[in-house]
Amino acid sequence: MNECKDSPFSLYGETLASRFVLGTALYPSPQSMKDSIAASGTAMVTLSLRRQNPQQQDGDTFWQYIRESGCRLLPNTAGCKTPKEAINLAEMSRELFETEWLKLEVIGDDYNLQPCPFGLVEAAAELVKRGFKVLPYTTDDLVLAQKLLDVGCEVLMPWGAPIGTGQGLLNRYNLRTLRERLPDVPLIVDAGLGAPSQAAEAMEMGFDGILLNTAVAKASDPVLMARAFAGAIDSGRMAFLAGLIQKSQTASPSTPTLGQPFWHQS
Questions:
Q1: Where are the domains of the chain?
Q2: Crossing angle, helix 196-204 and helix 222-242, to 10 degrees?
Q3: What is the DSSP letter of 7?
Q4: Phi-psi region at 152: left, alpha or beta (left = phi > 0; alpha = psi -120 to 50)
Q5: What is the topology classification, in CATH, of domain 17-242?
Q6: Is 161 exposed, middle or buried (0-12, 13-18, 19+ CB in 10 A)?
Q7: Comparing C-alpha atoms, which of 215, 87, 236, 104 is closest to residue 163?
């Protein structure tokens, strides 16, 4: 059987073994987080300096499990509302976590946690100059995406919906436009997904990866949900590579008879 050959999932020149990036917050226990990470097969996990500090003794179990996972760390600037605040937290994260990788968040609205486009570009530009590998959490706006690329970001992470809502892909037109207009840029759908089917749809559209947290951590069975999302992401990617059929307004017989030979049994 011939299989479509996939290209590696490469971010900033580094190849990751999984297209699933998983968050480490909100789990009912450190053990649940550990087991979910293992079930997901992820190679990269996000974590927040504001929520967990490796120098605090009460996070010993959390940090032990994170180290044991062997995953690359992707610190984030969750909760930051200004470029200055995000830059300061990024520098602290780099020192404590010993990594230049960063999920950049600059929030502009407390109600829907929408990224501030102006602050995001300003912070990204400065952090790229300081040597960070910036993965910006952004909206699905094409112009904003282009501005972030212009200041040196090599990966973009547009939202599917506001963080934690589980609404899925609210603006498919914008997401498809991003994918079509930026064919060579790694795009990871980040935030708002609530079901594995939504992750599969994003991957079928040609997105390169999925980042989520709440949908797994808040599930009745986080470990099983992590496994479900991992399978959906893989299936969606395979469907994209295989090539989905075009939608049609009219029916088309799957077993045509015209021009086909009829076999008669003697």
A1: 17-242
A2: 20
A3: P
A4: left
A5: TIM Barrel (3.20.20)
A6: buried
A7: 215
160/42 Cα distance (integer angstroms): 20
The model's pTM is 0.89
List, by residue number, the catalytic residues. 103
Distance from C-alpha of 109 to C-alpha of 98, rounded to nearest angstrom: 30
What's the CA dihedral at 91, 92, 94, 98 to 10 degrees? 150
Secondary structure (3-state) at 183: coil
What is the model's pLDDT at position 238?
Answer: 96
Give the model confidence (pLDDT) of 104-155 as tens digits: 999 998 888 899 999 999 999 999 999 999 999 999 999 999 999 999 999 9
Higher pLDDT, 20 or 55: 20
Alpha carbons 43 and 59: distance in angstroms, whole number: 21
CA atoms within 13 A on the CB side of 16: 22
Q: What is the DSSP letter of 248?
A: -
* Beta-strand pair 9-11/20-23: unpaired
